[in-house]
Automatic annotation (TrEMBL):
Official protein name in the record: 6-phosphofructokinase
Species for this entry: Thalassomonas viridans
UniProt key word ATP-binding: yes
Lineage summary: Bacteria, Pseudomonadati, Pseudomonadota, Gammaproteobacteria, Alteromonadales
EC nos: 2.7.1.11
Family: Belongs to the phosphofructokinase type A (PFKA) family.
Keywords, comma-separated and alphabetical: ATP-binding, Cytoplasm, Glycolysis, Kinase, Magnesium, Metal-binding, Nucleotide-binding, Transferase
InterPro entries in alphabetical order: ATP_PFK, ATP_PFK_prok-type, Phosphofructokinase_dom, PKF_sf
A GO biological-process term: fructose 1,6-bisphosphate metabolic process
Class in the EC hierarchy, top level: transferase
SUPFAM superfamilies for the chain: Phosphofructokinase (SSF53784)
Length: 339
């Protein structure tokens, strides 16, 4: 306990995620409990370059657990990826007498922490905050659950029009490198097709287009029903709009492309995200007090634990293969054959 930090720097970085505020609140409350000060830096790593932080007292985090976005603002900060930027950030932390840094963000933000390590020797802890859920070593990330629920709500609404008009919709979901959102939403919405990194490669594009055209024709002829295809962003060259155009040009199939976009990142965090963010925020302060360094707080089988930051950014977290297989082999096929 003698070496516990006296002043923690806290920031949110990269894509904002619902529940980041809940994590900020938990860090501040836990730190207050242990008589540690928390300095909030704004605009991601830019805040360390700007050196204009604010002391986060209890009133600063009052009633923020239910708010989407982040009260500390977020940003991407190219300057932090230069030696000059990293040195400047390290100087700020020294000048502000911070002996620890907690960053709530995604894999890029954690890579940033590891780069800063070359110039600053304080304690560093990452808290996984990203809707993409693409962080190794943690079963879930803050924001994923809310984003999935938001997309489900949106697609359920689209389904009403799709059913009423027996129309085809192609809905593009976020997750630039991973299909966690796409597969979970696809299964939960009973989407007729799911297209993501796990089950599609652009090399098979022509074959896939033909297969989709056949499926759509079959569903429409035999069932007079709607057809919803969910696709991950970046998976089809040109995205949902290009796919809709190709179906029209090659097979004369009319479809409507719908890009859900940033709607998935916003809104009040759901119960799951509020709870995981709170647990992670408290665990981060406890990890600092225990002398841990260069780790990310994670949840594994409902328990909080620490994972080396290096391990967290390996990009090896796969979609549950049972989910992919169930959709490919059972759910979609069975649903499409219903009369
Ligand atoms: N290799 C790196 N070195 C230093 N900083 C980095 C590095 N990679 C990312 N960052 C910092 O982290 C920020 C957020 O990363 P980004 O990948 O955009 O979001 P996320 O953290 O959500 O994955 C970047 O804008 C940059 O400031
Ligand atoms: O808002 P931007 O800068 O266009 O970024 C969009 C990207 O951010 C995300 O919403 C979240 O990604 P990160 O959490 O890794 O930043 C991705 O799903 C999406 O591809």
């Amino acid at each position: 306990m003698g070496n516990q930090p006296k002043r923690i720097a806290l920031l949110t970085s990269g894509g904002d995620a619902p529940g980041m505020n809940a994590a900020i609140r938990a860090v501040v409350l836990a730190a207050h409990h242990f008589h540690i000060e928390v300095l909030g830096f704004f605009h991601g790593y830019n805040g360390l370059l700007e050196n204009d932080p604010t002391l986060l007292d209890l009133s600063a985090v009052n009633d923020i657990i239910r708010l989407g976005g982040t009260i500390l603002k977020s940003a991407r900060c190219p300057q932090f990826q230069t030696e000059t930027g990293l040195k400047q950030a390290a100087n700020t932390l020294v000048k502000q007498h911070c002996d620890a840094l907690i960053v709530i963000g995604g894999d890029g933000s954690f890579a940033g922490l590891l780069a800063l390590k070359q110039h600053w020797d304080g304690q560093m802890i990452g808290i996984p905050g990203t809707i993409d859920n693409d962080i190794d070593g943690s079963d879930a990330t803050i924001g994923f659950s809310t984003a999935v629920n938001t997309a489900i709500n949106a697609i359920d609404k689209i389904r009403d029009t799709a059913n009423a008009f027996e129309r085809i919709f192609i809905v593009e979901l976020m997750g630039r490198h991973s299909g966690h959102i796409t597969f979970n939403v696809g299964v939960a919405c009973a989407a007729e097709q799911v297209l993501s990194f796990e089950n599609f490669s652009a090399d098979n594009r022509e074959q896939k287009l033909k297969q989709l055209a056949q499926e759509i024709a079959s569903v429409q002829q035999t069932r007079h029903n709607s057809y919803i295809l969910v696709i991950a962003e970046n998976v089809w060259p040109g995205g949902a709009t290009a796919l809709a155009r190709e179906l029209k040009e090659t097979f004369a199939i009319d479809s409507t492309a719908c890009v859900l976009g940033h709607i998935q990142r916003g809104g009040s965090p759901d119960a799951k995200d509020r709870v995981i963010a709170t647990k992670m925020g408290v665990a981060a302060v406890q990890a600092l007090i225990n002398g841990e360094n260069e780790v990310m707080i994670a949840e594994q089988n409902s328990r909080m634990c620490s994972v080396a930051l290096k391990q967290a950014i390996q990009h090896q977290k796969k979609i549950n293969p049972n989910l992919v297989a169930a959709h490919e082999n059972i759910l979609a096929v069975t649903a499409q054959n219903q009369c």
